[in-house]
Structure formats: structure tokens, C-alpha cells
Amino acid sequence: MKAVCILLQNHYDMDIRVRRKAEALVAEGYEVDVLALQSPFSKSKNYNLSGVNVETVSLGKKRGSLIRYTFEYAAFFIWAFIKLSTRMSRRQYAIVDVNNLPDFLIFAGAYAKWRGAKLVLDMHEITPEFYISKYGVKQDSFLISFLKWVERMSFDFADSVITINEPLTQLLVSRGLPIGKTTEVMNSVDESLFDKVSESPNIANASEDRPEFVMMYHGTLTHLYGLDIAVQALGLAQAEMPGARFWILGDGPERPDLEALAAKVGLANKVRFVGKVRPEDVPQWLKVCDLGVLATRRDVFLDFSFSNKLSEYIILGKPVICSRLKAIRHYFSEDALAYFEPGDAKALASKMVRLYQDSQLRVSLANKALIEYKPIRWEVMKARYLQLIASLAVCESNHKSKQQPEAFAKAR
User: Fold this and answer.
1) What is the pLDDT of residues 123-155, one digit of tens each?
2) Least CB-packed of 111, 156, 229, 408 within 10 Å?
3) What is the DSSP letter of 39?
């Protein structure tokens, strides 16, 4: 049985993308080990989740400053390098799947590669743009040039590179990534998870107390996701949509400011802050809503983002008002999503009113989005990922079979 090791500087149980990949590998017959950060929701450092063996380190995730990021990246890199190298002698991994950030985590597989393992670098983030967005670093600065150099060295060292959408692929190709080395595995949602019915009493109460028209957002409450823009838009539109309410699922640093903003614009009774929701309960909450709102701001990093949230609304047949971002617009037409220019509260308010008043338009958008989503759904992405892993595993086996006769000849 082939063995795969996954490196992830995150909490495995909360990283849906990596869990999808790992569980797909297990279902295909691979043995899968994960090296990750210890989750705050798990008392054990080592555990098995859905057939995946997880070993963690108590490093924490207190990122904020550049110095803290650097420390955490370096500490996890050293731990992962030692763990993976030690395990390699007894597990003989065929594949090591490394998930950025950081990009240089791929070099933690150096000894494993020397022993014959194939290295896959899943670049679901673009590091230079991340630092430009988060810290306001200038694009022509030395730091960004250095990060681009590290990025180039990292994907050169990998045997194969995974990207999450075509615009991001083209960006990396422009920076030296060979197109023949890439495979696109998008952030699609495992639709089977949405077939499971939750028995949470909170969901039942939500259904019973449901207002006339519910708009919804679910996820982290941060400035980047533009929830203040959505609240302002509803404030502008509330006279034309009296039966509408905005439910916000999740928590984050922006919650106090958002609550204050809602009260300021007269929406204290129309914006509901639900708080944290268990991942397994999210589908049932989304089924309650009439409209998804994704008001993400645009910048050099977010323009390439493709949120899981969008996929979740689409597969449940919900229309979505969405910021016109490059990656999303690449896959979905103007007939599939109700686009508005990022940051424009008036434009968003206009879209809210139009969809509130036009039920036929809501159905048309939802149906078109579902059609355009089919080519990138998880079943397609899963097959693509498994095919990549299988092809690399065959290459690894062939490499070993060639080494054995050579070693025998030398021994003679």
C-alpha cells in the first residue's frame, strides 16, 4: 500500500481543502499521515480522523507581525523536516504533499526526495501578494523580490505544483513556473457533506423564526471580506426591502465594529450576528437563506481568491451577490452571479433591492451558476488530484525498480 505524507502549517481538522485531499487518498487505498499544528479543538497531539493519521506540534498560531510569521514558519519547518526525515526510514513515503504557506516548506521534504519520494507543492496562496495585501509592502520592494525568488526556488524544487485557479496559474507561469508542471485543483466543495441532515436545535429554531427574506454571510469577520460594505448597503436599501434581514454566521476581530455600524445605520434589529457555527451545521443554515452576499474587497491578493463560500451557496441553489474579482469572474458569467464593483456600497444596495424584488431573477442566477459550476465541482477536482498522485507514485516505483538492479550490480 502506497503511503503519502502531508505537511500543513495549520490545524488539520479545520482546513477543509487539505482534509478533502487526505480523505480522498484514504478512500483510494493510500495510507495517509499528516504533520500539522495542534488544534485548539483537540486534546490529543496525535489522533486519527476519518482514517487519516495526524501528528501535531504545539506551536500555536499567533500570527500578526512579520517577525512572528518568520518565527512560526522557521519553527514548523525545522520540526517538519526532522519528523519527515525520521519517518522516511520506516514508512518510505511515495509522495509528500506540501501545502503553503510558507512556500519554502517544500524543502522540508529534501531528505524524503533524496530517498525517492515525489514532492508536490500545493500553492493555494501566493506569498508575495499576501504580504502586499496584509502589510502594505510595496510591490517593488526588496522583500517582495526576495519572496518571489523563494517562490521560484520552491516550485523549481517540487516535482509537481498544484494551483487553485487558472488566473493564479497564469500569474505563476509569468514568474517562471513551467506550465507542464502544474495541475489545477480548485477550492470546490464536497457535495456529499451537504446531503447530511443536521439535528442541531439551533438550526430548527432558525427555520421556525425565519424572516420574510434572509441574506447571509458565513465565515471569518475581517475587514477583507467587506461585511461593513454589506451592512452599509442594507442601510441604504432597507426602505425598499422592509422584509429583508442579514444574518452573519461566524466570528472575528471586526464583530464589535460591525455591531456598532449596524446600530448606527438603523439595522440593530435587521442584522443578526449568529456567532460561530460548527462546520457540519453550515449547510443547514445556508438552506434557510434566500441570498448569499460576498462583498470581498479587491486588492492584488484577493483578486485571485476563490472562496469555498461561493461554491457552497451555488450547490445549494442559492443566488449570490458577489464582488467582481478576477478569479471568480473567470469562471462565472454575468448571468450566473449578481456582480457589483468591490467596495461600492451603493452598487451593492442596488443589487440587493433588485434580487429582493425579482424572484425569477434569483432562480435564473442560481440555475445558471450551477451549470457553470459543474466543470469545476469537487468530483472533477478529486479525480484530477488522484490522477496526479497516482502518476507520481508510478514514477516513484519505476525509480526504485531501476535503482535495485544498479545496486545489485555494484554489490557484485
Assistant:
1) 988 999 988 988 888 999 999 999 999 999 999
2) 408
3) P
